[in-house]
Each structure stands twice: as C-alpha cells, then as structure tokens.
Amino acid sequence: xxxxxxxxxxxxxxxxxxxxxxxxxxxxxxxxxxxxxxxxxxxxxxxxxxxxxxxxxxxxxxxxxxxxxxxxxxxxxxxxxxxxxxxxxxxxxxxxxxxxxxxxxxxxxxxxxxxxxxxxxxxxxxxxxxxxxxxxxxxxxxxxxxxxxxxxxxxxxxxxxxxxxxxxxxxxxxxxxxxxxxxxxxxxxxxxxxxxxxxxxxxxxxxxxxxxxxxxxxxxxxxxxxxxxxxxxxxxxxxxxxxxxxxxxxxxxxxxxxxxxxxxxxxxxxxxxxxxxxxxxxxxxxxxxxxxxxxxxxxxxxxxxxxxxxxxxxxxxxxxxxxxxxxxxxxxxxxxxxxxxxxxxxxxxxxxxxxxxxxxxxxxxx
Length: 366
Known about the structure:
The chain is mainly alpha-helical and about 375 residues long. The protein has one domain (about 5-360). The chain has 15 helices and three strands. Strands 1-2-3 form a three-stranded antiparallel beta sheet, covered by helices on one side. The longest helix is centred in the C-terminal third of the chain and has 33 residues, at about 265-295. It starts with a helix and ends in a 5-residue tail after the last helix.
C-alpha cells in the first residue's frame, strides 16, 4: 500500500502529459492505418490495448520504493540477459532479424526491456562506486562488462538502433557519475579507430542505409526510398498540414513503416509545421520535467535512474526525428509514446513510472 503522504508528492501533471502524448500517437496510428480504398486495420485498437497495459505497469512501478529496486538491480539485469539468451536460442525471426519471443498470446522484444534493466544496474554500480572512493582500473572493466554483455547479444540479433540507444544511455550515465574525461577521450579514440573493423560486421542492408544517408540518391527505389518519401511527406505538410487522414504520402501508401518508425512524417504531413511544433514542445516539456526531478533527487542512485530514463526518451526523440528528416541514417528507432509497438511502449511507461516513483519518495525516508 502507498503511504498517503506520498500522494502529495505525486506528479499528476507528468502522468497526464504522458497519456496526452500517447493519445496523440493513438490518433496518428489510427490515421496511418486507414488507407484510401482499403478496409481499416485494427492496429490502433492494439495500441490502445498496449497503452492500457503500460498504464498498469506504470502504476505497479510506482507502488515499489525505488530504493528496493537498488537492492534487486543485479537480479533484474540477470533476468534481462536471460531473456536475450532465449532470443538467441528460440527467438522469433521477422524482417531478417531475430528479436522477439512469444509469451502466451503476446510477442515481446526483450531488448526494449533491457534498457530499463541496464539503467537500474548501472545506476546502482556507479552510485556504489562513488560511495567506495571512485573509479579504479578494475571498476572500469566492470562497467565495460555490464554494458558489453547485453550490447553484444543485441548487436547479433541484429538491432543496430537499440544497440546505439544502450550505448548512448550508458555513456550519459557514466559521465554523470563522474567518470574522468580522459576515459571518454580514450574510448572515443578506440571507437574511431575500430570503425573500419566494425564495418565488416554490419549486415548488407545496414551498410546500404549508411551509404544512402551519405548520398540519398544512391538507391532512390531501394534503401533510399524511406528517407525520400519521408522528406516529401514532411515538406508537403506546409504550415497547417493537409488534414487528418488527408495525407497523400500515407493514405496512398507511399510512406513505408508509417505507423512505426516514420509516424512523425504522418503527423507532419497531416498537421503541418504547427502540429509538429506542438508535439515537439510537449516532448521538450516532458524531458524538462524528467531532468528537473533528477536534479532535485537527494541520492545518486535516484538521480542516475531518473536521468537515465529521461535521456533514453530524449535520445528516442532526437534520433527518430533526425532519421525521418534525413539528418541521420535509418536505424529503426521509434518515436516515444507515438509509434506503434507494445514492448517499446511498455518500457517507456515503466521508465516514467520510475521517474514518478523517485519524485514521490525523494524527500520521504519512511
């Protein structure tokens, strides 16, 4: 049971904001799944179902003191690794990748849930390191192992987008935890030096996406098709947009993956610059609230968890919109709370639940 005193610190505004953005996504998915001259798809109903499950998971997350999660962080991390191993052994294959497992009637993507597990375990380890006197050579290795194990399992699925997200989140956390700047200099130099070697491990379609990003007209009917059609959709929206369910790129099926990775293009085409700006302002306020809660939290573990979740959401937004605008290569990163997808949505709701949890208990010692 929740202590009634905690309710006074509950951020109802943050919960409302997340539900509002999710409902905007629901409307965009409804529009993106109804094509001219075709029977309507029911994926918008499935998304509504996932929003309901996500809300339940959020409420379950806030019912557990986040300091209890500090105690079980390694166990949660071990479970996440176990699920990734199951993907390797018995995972469901789709679109050339082995990323999913079937649990009863549900199909889950463990790599999404791994983001929360990694945030928790890194936050615990890094906060413990600071209490024990800071970083040593052995502790550098431990951090690398904590990050490297799930990263290796996800890269081999292959899932470049999630791998990059895990890497960005991890770098942010270890930077905030006070790891010396020279570590980042050495690590950055090593990554740059390894690029020619890593190129050989990329799948052919991943290489093609990067080459198309550098030269969009290289394969306009193949790998470059997504970016070209997305940019046409965004640009054709003008200031006020073409109207809900009136976008030609989406309604005539020129825009691929329009209910998932390229949902922002649908919104920009149908609601124009004004609608896209409103969505970006809502996202900016969400990130601001998350950072504000993190900075006002009194213990390092809570601060790192809140910052980890907030930066995860921020990276989602930044990479997805950059990808759909042609600023970044296509790496398969969804737009948070907007794109269709159960595993991603549940992960995000759990993450917001952690932020609300920390907000409620940051001044409470009971």
